[in-house]
């Protein structure tokens, strides 16, 4: 559809992460007519060696990053404020806002759910999740947004690997300002769709 865009990127493991279970993790980012982002994470590897959280209701839940989890961080312009989104293969999710680097964290109240969809096969884990336009509009400024994308992967032997677009620190740190490497235009809701949803 006109005005929509799609971007695909690959995540890389931190140099301190050693894993033979995961071959690759890619993320596809799409804009939607409603002014949201839709993320599709694709992990390929030996899934029988991974600790994958059991299915659960797709509701907000804290501490998802302690196990296998896919993450997105979004900021706008040069503002230090940013949002963090966690998506678990259990279909649980979480959303937080930060005033600046790891400071003044609060649960992000954007009034909508973020249903997560998961598909599994012997060598592929695919997870799709939205970032609602309402959440994006809480970010200050206008125009381009900056994103950091990441994943925590837990293996059945207790080993973890940490994946991101880049790793600017000697230890894994998905919040690092230099991790926000992906620049995208902020999605704008289609005017016709907005009009059809307006109250009469």
Please identify, by name, the CATH architecture: Sandwich
Shape: globular
Number of H/I helices: 2
- Rounded radius of gyration (Å): 17 Å
- The termini sit apart by 27 Å
CATH class: Mainly Beta
Q: What is the count of β-strands?
A: 12
Largest sheet properties:
12 strands, antiparallel
Q: Helical percent range?
A: under 10%
Q: In percent terms, what proportion of residues is strand? A: 35-45%
Runs in which pLDDT lies below 50 for 5 or more consecutive residues are 191-200
| Domains, number | 1
Mean model confidence by pLDDT: 88
Order of helices and strands: EEEEEEEEEHEEEH
Explain what this protein looks like in three dimensions:
The radius of gyration is 17 Å and the shape is globular. It is built from two helices and twelve strands. It has helices at residues 133-136, 191-197, and strands at 6-13, 22-31, 37-45, 69-76, 82-87, 93-98, 106-107, 117-120, 124-131, 144-154, 160-164, 182-185. Strands 1, 2, 3, 4, 5, 6, 7, 8, 9, 10, 11 and 12 form a twelve-stranded antiparallel beta sheet that branches. The chain has a single domain (6-197), classed as Sandwich (Immunoglobulin-like). With 200 residues, it is mainly beta.
Secondary-structure map with pairings?
Elements: E1 6-13, E2 22-31, E3 37-45, E4 69-76, E5 82-87, E6 93-98, E7 106-107, E8 117-120, E9 124-131, H1 133-136, E10 144-154, E11 160-164, E12 182-185, H2 191-197
Antiparallel strand pairs: 1-2, 1-11, 2-3, 3-9, 4-5, 4-10, 5-6, 6-7, 8-9, 10-11, 10-12
